[in-house]
Design brief:
By secondary structure, this protein is of the alpha/beta class. The protein has one domain: Response regulator (Rossmann fold), CATH 3.40.50.2300. The protein has five helices and four strands. The protein has a four-stranded parallel beta sheet. GO terms for molecular function: arsenate reductase (thioredoxin) activity; protein tyrosine phosphatase activity.
């Protein structure tokens, strides 16, 4: 099973989803993330994941390619822009949409912004955990 997490810039939400999926998935699951554009990794996303012992620094902010779409069994869009801009998928590829808010747009103090990153991180963790349970059972 090849799972692809897709967002606008592959900087926060899709990077966190990839990190959780890699951490939770069985060896039968290939996990990638990509963006419609490339914005580089968001340092706050790296910190939020590191707080849970998951290092996403080896992951690269990657632009979506046709090959990624062709290889994907499941594409999970994690923002509205990626959902709207997602190219036509091959007929055998399933698609899920998770309308997650962008923590990079949070405003306020550093503590308030990090609280938003943690909130989104925790929502992503819940969704990825459920998804990996379904995938491991062949659903």
């Amino acid at each position: 099973m090849n799972v692809l997490f897709l967002c606008t810039g592959n900087a926060c939400r899709s990077q966190m989803a990839e990190g959780f999926a890699r951490h939770l998935a069985s060896e039968r699951v290939v996990v990638q993330s990509a963006g419609i554009e490339v914005h580089g990794q968001n340092e706050r996303a790296v910190v939020a994941m590191d707080e849970l012992g998951i290092d996403i620094t080896p992951q690269a902010s990657t632009q979506l390619t046709d090959a990624m779409l062709d290889e994907a069994d499941l594409v999970v869009t994690v923002c509205g822009h990626a959902d709207e801009q997602c190219p036509l998928l091959p007929p055998q590829t399933r698609k899920l949409h998770w309308p997650l808010e962008d923590p990079a747009r949070a405003t306020g103090t550093d503590d308030e912004i990090m609280a938003e990153f943690r909130r989104i991180r925790d929502e992503i963790r819940e969704r990825v955990t459920e998804l990996m349970e379904l995938v491991s059972h062949g659903e």
